[in-house]
Amino acid sequence: MSRKFVGACPLMFPSSSSMLAYNGFLSVAGKDFRVHISVPSHDKLQDARISCDWQLSHMMQGYQSSVRKLLEHSKSLADFIIEFKNLLNRIAECNHVIKSAPPPSYYKHLIEELDKLGWERITHVDETFTTVKIKTNDGGGREHILTVHVPLTYPIVAPTCIADLPVAFEPHWSSKDSLVTLVKSFEEELEKYQLFWDVVDELDSKTHVLEPEAPTRASNTRRIFIASNVSIYLTIDPFHPLCFPECRFLGQDSGMFGFTYF
Q1: Are the C-beta atoms of 28 and 98 separated by less than 8 Å?
Q2: How far apart are CA 102 and CA 157, in angstroms?
Q3: Which of 75, 93, 142, 149 has the fewest beta carbons under 10 Å from its own?
Q4: 261: phi then psi, degrees, rounded to nearest 5
Q5: Where are the beta strands (DSSP E) in the chain?
Q6: Which bin fits 182, alpha (ψ -120 to 50), beta or left (φ > 0)?
Q7: pLDDT tens digit string along 42-55?
């Protein structure tokens, strides 16, 4: 790593010798936030995947085009991370989005909504009431947890949602919406994947799944044992789970003979 990178991002480290992924913390407005950034190859910075603290996700809302421009003009992933950190600090300075504690009106409004939703459905609320976890069941009886990160400007600004779904849950939001309407939208989203989860549940129960060892409801891939030193890697379309999946055989060539032609 260059001295420039170490000086600007001392808590970010490459995840491998290929330098295709960095993991660690970025200092923004005097606070350290967890960030993971990766690219498929050095010549495909525009396909970068960024995972970060929910507060940083809120900060980037409305600035996606600026992030894309940084990716287009950066010479390397390390250069992008430096400029990305600078952008985040400029946004924080301009918008003052990183604050200490919500005002009393925030708590009053949120507690009223939790009362309407039903406290029996709440599995977790953090000490600042900015993170709420809500449980619900889908049509197949499967339990799901919706993690909601509530901004201090809620409900004017939409909350950020995290759930184990094959595709990220990004509900439409207006200032008139609430946690009740949010959960209703989430439950409607769950129904889209009932057949997909039926299929992967059957695979998990009737085959020897090697990977992932503990699949989540978001996982649409399975590596399944076929024979000694032979496995098949399946990628299932969550919206068309009964269509023939993308298949890739893994193992020694001698062991795969007879399996790759069918």
Answers
A1: yes
A2: 14
A3: 75
A4: -120, 105
A5: 12-14, 21-28, 31-38, 49-52, 122-125, 131-137, 143-149, 160-162, 209-211, 221-227, 230-235, 246-251
A6: alpha
A7: 888 888 889 887 87
| Contact call for residues 199 and 241 (beta carbons, < 8 A) | yes
Name the amino acid, one letter, at 45: L
The structure tokens listed for 34 are 């967890």
Asked if residue 151 has a cis previous peptide bond (ω within 30° of 0), the answer is no
Dist. CA 210–CA 122, nearest whole Å = 34
Tokens describing residue 91: 């946004």
At 205-222, the pLDDT tens digits run 999 999 999 999 999 999
71-87: burial string, b at 16+ Cβ within 10 Å, e else: beebeebbbbbbbbbeb
CA-based nearest residue to 179, from 224, 121, 117: 117
pLDDT score, position 41: 85
pTM of the model: 0.60
Instruction: Give 257's pLDDT tier (boundaries 50, 70, 90).
Output: low
Coil, strand or helix at 249: strand
Q: Give the C-alpha separation, 192 to 226, whole Å.
A: 30
Q: Is the peptide bond before 212 cis (omega within 30 degrees of 0)?
A: yes
CB 38 within 8 A of CB 24: no
DSSP codes, 136-190: EE-TTS-EEEEEEE--TTTTTSPPEEE---SS-------TT--HHHHHHHHHHHH
Q: What is the mean pLDDT of residues 130-144?
A: 94
CA 72 to each of CA 44, 63, 77, 120: distance values in angstroms, whole numbers, following the listed order: 9, 15, 11, 47
